[in-house]
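User: Hey, my collaborator sent me this sequence without any context and asked if I could get a structure. I don't really work with proteins. Can you help?
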Amino acid sequence: MPAKKTTKKTNLMPIISGGITAIVVTILVLAGSSLLKDSQAPAEETEKSELMDLMEEKEFISEQDLVIDVVEKASPAVISVVITKDVPVLEEYYEEYGSPFDDFFFEGPGYNFKVPKYRESGETEEKEIGGGSGFIVSSEGYLVTNKHVIYEEDADYTVFTTEGTEYEAKVIDKDSINDIAVLKIEGKNFPYLEFGDSENVKAGQTVIAIGNPLLEFNNSVSKGVISGLSRNITAGTRYFGKTEYLEGVIQTDAAINPGNSGGPLLDLSGKVIGVNVAIANGENLGFAIPSNVVETAVKSVKEKGRIVRPFLGVRYIPVTKALKEKNNLSVDYGALVLRGESMEDLAVIPGSPADKAGIQENDIILEIDGKKLKDISLAKIISSKNVGQEIELKILREGEEKTVNVTLEEAT
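Assistant: No problem. I've predicted the 3D structure and written it out in structure-token form, which is a compact way to encode the shape of the chain:
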């Protein structure tokens, strides 16, 4: 009696999660056709049979299936942040004005009009004044959002989960350079999202954004691709007309709207590769802070209770080919140490590590620890270092290159 033939089930998930966004069964059919074209009849039947067995045995997962799976698993960890604050209660009153024609045509009352006005009553009431999105990053209840979402100092922050459960949130710390904030809610065994490696993301890679657009549509989902990497942008905030400069952010065409700020940008394995932070109005472009930057901040909060950032202490502008040509520089890369727009914004901050190492205005920082500042910014390299770490800078001063050592300190 012949031995029973067994078949081995093959799992394609490792291949799919590595970047393949869809697998089409007809590819195998076409491949099989080309193989069978020049074969002899017996071999033809054998190969055709093996091909059919292969198609039956393998499990094919489409991009749509992957997206649905990621959304179902990630959504419980995505939250909405609501900001409430005691604001003055306004009372309405009227001021009476006479008709401008009274003196010419009429005398006495009858032609006056009242204008409604408002004044503070002396009382306050708690009102919802804003909000955004965020996501839980640990089972203990640590969560991430943007700094600009929780800009109000004397406000209360409430977190709502997908199921509608409400938690009071405590702001642990904010990183004003990277627009990150870490909060904490009380409880345990929370569903949470894991960080992916943002250094490995690729242009064209499929991504998913989840958030609370317009502060109305909880856990809305959008899908797109990474359309650019290492972008430097000046983002305007919606409060007080302030702007912030963000370096090395991820660009995506996944729909991101006001209210999505602080929500996760996910890859097809369900890991966070970015935190949504800004949009280009009318251009279908969104931007996200790379996950590696955010993960470092979260680890710092867990270990030290605050976000610890290394600090060099210089203001600078990137050296470009245009800057080189216009100013007759000898290099077209690096960071030109330069003061800010006002006289108070010094190029080298007094008492900073850069000041202690002798860095001067108009120096061009060419390299940090042997890495050229060509395809990567100074801020990005510094943010990857540790407080107390000694780094080596190659600088260009008045046409001569020199090397200086700097010990990074904690930003305050």
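In plain terms: Residues 1-40 have pLDDT under 50 and may be disordered. You can pass these tokens on to your collaborator as they are.
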